[in-house]
Amino acid sequence: MTRFAIFLAAALTSVCSLASAAETAPLPAFHAEYDVLRNGKIMGKATLDLHHAQGDNWEFINQTKGTSGMAALAGIDVREVSTFHWRNGLPESLQYQYTQKSAIKTRQRGIVFDWSKNSAASHDGSQQWTVALKPGSVDRNLAVLAVAADLKRGSKSLSYPVLDSDTVADKVYAIKATETLDLPAGKLSAMRVERERNDNPNKHNTSWHAAERGFLPVQIEQQDKGDTITMKLVLLQLNK
């Protein structure tokens, strides 16, 4: 083999390796906008943004702002930022930041995941904890991405170790049905996925994922203490 042929083969191998690395992310970068409703009435707007950061890291940002009623008067602004990498087709957390701002107060929480020690440093205001991690642990913000990634590859087992403050607990989800949703973004056929909550049967977490939108969440809903908060998709842009 000539030197040129050897060089060309090496270059092609390098290019193929880079392509393979890029393909390890099961979900594309995206920007999504949602109407946020409380008991059927619009109270705010939400955005979800997933983008590639430095190296193998990715960043997922979830932000909700009050635009109507008391939520607007209180100046509610909630922002969650997760830094993570993909591991075996699922997200694995590296850092998590939560900030809730309002006219009354500001609340901050955060987690730093140290996989070299299999532990995490977590804080909520002045409270601090060191928590032992399970393989594949994620923060609560990433659970919806884990569900989307598993649905995309056809997995029926939806269970993830989630760190929330001082505890890592397995959150289990079940695929319930395929439904047609009438959303601001249009009518979409979506899989309804519910979190199994034996600890609190009065609290319900549900997300709907549309195959024609890459199994990304097109509607997210939480029911608790008589309140229903729903996020309905308005706009989805892939590879933003």
Written account of the structure:
By secondary structure, the protein is mainly beta. The chain has a single domain, classed as Clam (outer membrane lipoprotein receptor (LolB), chain A). 15% of the residues lie in helices and 57% in strands. It has three helices and 15 strands. Strands 8-7-6-5-4-3-2-1-15-14-13-12-11-10-9 form a 15-stranded mixed beta sheet. A hairpin with a 7-residue loop joins strand 13 and strand 14. The longest helix has 20 residues. The chain is globular, with a radius of gyration of 20 Å. The termini are far apart. The N terminus is likely disordered.
Secondary-structure map with pairings?
Elements lengths: L2 H20 L7 E9 L2 E12 L5 E9 L2 H5 L3 E11 L2 E12 L4 E9 L4 E6 L2 E6 L5 E2 L3 H10 L5 E7 L2 E17 L2 E10 L8 E6 L7 E8 L2 E12 L2
Keywords: Signal
Organism: Pseudolysobacter antarcticus
Protein name: DUF3108 domain-containing protein
Quick structural summary:
It is built from three helices and 15 strands. With 240 residues, the protein is mainly beta. The chain has one domain: outer membrane lipoprotein receptor (LolB), chain A, CATH 2.50.20.
First-last Cα distance = 43 Å
Number of strands: 15
Number of domains: 1
Question: What's the order of the H and E elements?
Answer: HEEEHEEEEEEHEEEEEE
Largest sheet: 15 strands, mixed
pLDDT < 50 runs, ≥5 residues: 1-23
The CATH topology is outer membrane lipoprotein receptor (LolB), chain A
